Amino acid sequence: MEKKIAVILGDGIGPEVTNQSLKVLNAIAERFEHHFEYTYGLMGADAIDKTGSPLPDETLAICLESDAILFGAIGDPKYDNDPTAKVRPEQGLLKLRKSLGLFANIRPVATFPSLHHLSPLKSDRLEDVDFVVYRELTGGIYFGEKKVDAAYTEASDLCSYNKSEIERISHHAFKATQQRKKHLTLVDKANVLETSRLWRKVVQEVAKQYPDVQVDYLFVDNAAMQLIVNPKQFDVMLTENMFGDILSDEASVITGSLGMLPSASVGATTALFEPIHGSYPQAAGKDIANPVGSILSTAMLLDHLGLFTEASLVRDAVAWTLESKFVTKDIDPINYYFTSTIGDLVSEYVAGRLPNDVNRINIELRKSTLI
Ligand SMILES: NC(=O)c1ccc[n+]([C@@H]2O[C@H](COP(=O)([O-])OP(=O)(O)OC[C@H]3O[C@@H](n4cnc5c(N)ncnc54)[C@H](O)[C@@H]3O)[C@@H](O)[C@H]2O)c1
Ligand SMILES: CC(C)[C@H](C(=O)O)[C@@H](O)C(=O)O
Ligand SMILES: [Mg+2]
């Protein structure tokens, strides 16, 4: 199979984690005789430095011409620490999502039994945790009118949603629920916000078309607590843009680290695949970031291309590395391996050279650890 993949490395740890995913894709191509053609595009602080724009037109064009987009992360302390900067890396990502019409951000949360002992949660709360967050991605407070006065004494961000924006992601979420445990939880703040009351009303109407799905409603503050005390109650969590952003970072803790979680953003045009974390600038260039979120995003990309066997092989490879205790510093600060070592192990497994040859390869790889 021949596929065109747009690659946006971005800032901070973006290039490091994405390069591990590219190794994995190359191993898939080798083993299954596929041809992936990569076209690189700039975005974020890197793009501002090189072109003056956080999303050059050329990047958008590359994405539109591709079958899928693999993205790392954007963001730089230079902008985070300057609230008055008018051109910002994050504008590039938001514009890309909006321009491509990627209204549904899918963030699966599943725990790995071999990491339970490292989680801050009790292990009995972690067993059987397997849910997915459907986060609306192109509306809400992120995209409403923004105002700040010249003297920086007052600012506002408008949160608005319309019926069709809620309907289209709700249909995606309900259809996904039908393929899972048939339990959908809408998370909102309907006791306070008019937009949330619209979400409840529209979701109640959409629900009539999916009578086999059980629908629950949770206020976002309660949902934040329930995620910690009883995460296995969730199957599909549907929510608006900002609540989904915050709750999915919180949910990552259940799996062991923010570096673990993948995502797919789908909608009108080319789908985009990215880990949910940011550019983690403190780790940039140190080869210590966890590449699992990016690699699992690559598995979602392969699923999206219809390459289901390949995607499940990537997931098996990740599970094997974790079970074998090949983990990065965020997971085990004492016995840890480099980002690039994890990428090598996963891609060697995918290529079919592991785990059979594990003794020889283990000895070589252990030399590259910090212990
Ligand atoms: N999609 C994106 O590109 C995206 C997402 C979130 C934040 N950002 C941007 O990233 C920059 C840094 O933001 P932040 O520090 O709030 O969030 P972050 O996600 O970059 O990092 C927060 C913390 O999570 C941990 N972490 C994140 N990714 C990890 C990984 N792969 N491996 C191990 N640990 C990991 C680290 O402890 C880190 O300090 C900001 O400029 C922000 O705007 C971008
Ligand atoms: C960088 C930022 C705009 C982005 C978001 O809030 O959507 C990030 O936090 C994410 O989760 O992808
Ligand atoms: Mg986020």
Automatic annotation (TrEMBL):
The residue range of the signal peptide is none
SMART domains linked: Iso_dh
Give the record's cofactor note, including how many are bound: Binds 1 Mg(2+) or Mn(2+) ion per subunit.
| SUPFAM superfamilies named among the record's database cross-references | Isocitrate/Isopropylmalate dehydrogenase-like
Gene Ontology biological-process annotations:
L-leucine biosynthetic process
Q: Which family does it belong to?
A: Belongs to the isocitrate and isopropylmalate dehydrogenases family. LeuB type 1 subfamily.
Provide the function of this protein. Catalyzes the oxidation of 3-carboxy-2-hydroxy-4-methylpentanoate (3-isopropylmalate) to 3-carboxy-4-methyl-2-oxopentanoate. The product decarboxylates to 4-methyl-2 oxopentanoate.
Protein name from the UniProt record: 3-isopropylmalate dehydrogenase
Biological source species: Flavisolibacter tropicus
What does UniProt list as this organism's lineage? Bacteria, Pseudomonadati, Bacteroidota, Chitinophagia, Chitinophagales
